[in-house]
Amino acid sequence: MIEIIMVIVIIGILAVAFFPSAKLIGGHAPVAADVIASDIRITQREAMSREIPLSIAFTAGSATYKYALDAAGNGEIRNLAEIGPITVIAQGQTVTFNSLGEPAALTVPLVITVSDGAATNSITVEPYTGMVTTP
Predict the structure, then answer these.
(1) What would the pLDDT profile of 48-105 be if each residue is shown by its tens digit?
(2) In this structure, is residue 1 part of a structural domain?
(3) Cα–Cα distance measured from residue 114 to residue 64, given in angstroms and rounded to the nearest whole number
(4) How many CB atoms lie within 10 A of CB 56?
């Protein structure tokens, strides 16, 4: 009986040690896409709660972007290189959310592409609603 319990404990320890690294087998791009989607949602919620327009600005070819930017340019900076190597945003774009959480001047879905060399993921922001999706 003690042997069975020891085997279960060892399997549990190995599973805990292996699980975090197993999540990144597909590359760092999926994790970066989730972080970007979260920051877009944060910017949208902040615009609604503060009742002012806020933006998120991406720079092409960069691993950094600014979010929750007000009209004066004050906001947060996110560096995707902290997630893993070579995470790059493909195109430079800015999305501004109004006080209702709607993306201003967006008439077609906005697609933001992130690549780490091994994998590519995209984030879509829908016009009018501002709904954020990742495949």
Answers:
(1) 999 999 999 988 888 889 999 898 889 999 998 888 876 778 788 899 999 999 999 8
(2) no
(3) 11
(4) 28
Q: Cα–Cα–Cα angle for 33, 18, 134, nearest 5°?
A: 15
> What six digits make up the tokens of 112?
């933001």
Is there a contact between 69 and 36 (Cβ–Cβ < 8 Å)? no
CATH code of residue 60: 3.55.40.10
- Give residue 66's pLDDT: 92
* Domain count across the chain: 1
| Spatial separation of the C-alpha atoms in residues 28 and 30, rounded to whole Å | 6
Q: Taking 80 as the threshold, does the pLDDT of residue 36 lie above it?
A: yes
Tell me whether residue 122 is in a domain: yes
Which residue range is the domain that position 110 belongs to?
Answer: 27-133
